[in-house]
Amino acid sequence: MEISSTGNGTADAASSDAKHCDPVECVKSEAAEEPGAKKPRAMTAEERRAELKSKIGSLKKKPADFDPRSVACWEDGERVPFLFLCLAFDMISNESGRIVITDIVCNMLRTIIKTTPDDLVAAVYLSANRVAPAHEGVEMGIGDASIIKALAEACGGKEAHIKNQYKEKGDLGLVAKVSRSSQSMMRKPAALTVAKVFDTFRIIAKESGKDSQEKKKKHIKSLLVAATDCEPQYLIRLLQAKLRIGYAEQTLLAALGQAALYTENHAKPPPHVSSPLEEAAKIVKQVYSVIPVYDKIIAALLRDGIWNLTKTCSFTIGIPVGPMLAKPTKGVSEIIEKFQNMVYTCEYKYDGERAQIHYMEDGSVEIYSRNAERNTGKYPDVASQYRYEMECFERRPVYILLKL
């Protein structure tokens, strides 16, 4: 097992790579050099990419047999290459078995934890095809038209040609991959990193006001110009929120729990746990349903370990909990049979919207939908009424589930 170090989220795009060597152009340094010794030749970008592609197959190993060092071609502390994430996505897209996919994601996350834990938050958000927690309401706000314009400019092509290829292939990501691979450049920009891509996505999502679409297009173009191999394909798919690799967020959560378990050695499983891997996956899923914020969960995992996660990450006023999902039945008899010898309650199902109301410490009220969307402005009368009623009672933070 490995020991992981702690990390806190991401930095701004302008400074995210400033503190770290570029993963493609950086020369591996020696701990100590003898006087007169020849310095090792720096690997070219093509050589580094070839090395990574030759090693990426190791991610398919069973986690118990996997060594993160066997695939990492960057030094500890260096920013994780975006190509590493894209190659993992490509591998996942060619698999159909849930267990194999979970193993690949688990080993991918373990490699990042081992080398550059600061990049884990960015990698997980990108793997979930998100840029922020759902309740923050941060979205890219990019349409296909803007992406096509940026792609045409980055590749030196015409929009009409890009549109025709999109219509033919049905996947703008594949169009981007083919377009970029056929273009040569005099001077290639620095290689993309996971942190750089994620931070740029956050900037794109926050652009607003006059000329915001033009600014977003320029950010996308800068990423595409620097992209190589299969990176353009997944850049475009991430921008479209259509990753198309065939795995659900629940698989990502399970893999995150297992990766945390494999990379920590400061705590043993509780005595009652018979299957640590299954329990670790269950814990992360449970915690995510209560506090669906990867920043907080990952920070707690790296700092305190998987077995303390339920203690260090719990319900927080202002962060909506995940809704309980109902399972449809074919009839009343199925319900009676399923709950034999059990005490249960039944209630009428009303039409309407399920709401979650949070009464904050400052006396304000927030209303969230079942999808964690902030709907306070949609129901001002409900917010006002609950604020009044709560002020009549003891002033303390509370949340209420309500059907509107």
Automatic annotation (TrEMBL):
Family affiliation: Belongs to the ATP-dependent DNA ligase family.
Pfam families, per database record: DNA_ligase_A_M, DNA_ligase_A_N
Residue span, ATP-dependent DNA ligase family profile domain: 323-387
SUPFAM superfamilies, sorted: ATP-dependent DNA ligase DNA-binding domain, DNA ligase/mRNA capping enzyme, catalytic domain
Ranges for region Disordered: 1-21
GO cellular component terms, semicolon-separated: mitochondrion; nucleus
DNA ligase ATP-dependent N-terminal domain ranges (all copies): 81-256
Taxonomic placement: Eukaryota, Viridiplantae, Streptophyta, Embryophyta, Tracheophyta
Name by which UniProt lists this protein: DNA ligase
A GO MF label: DNA binding
Keywords, sorted A to Z: ATP-binding, Cell cycle, Cell division, DNA damage, DNA recombination, DNA repair, Ligase, Nucleotide-binding
Superkingdom in the source lineage: Eukaryota
UniProt record, GO biological process: cell division; DNA recombination; DNA repair; lagging strand elongation
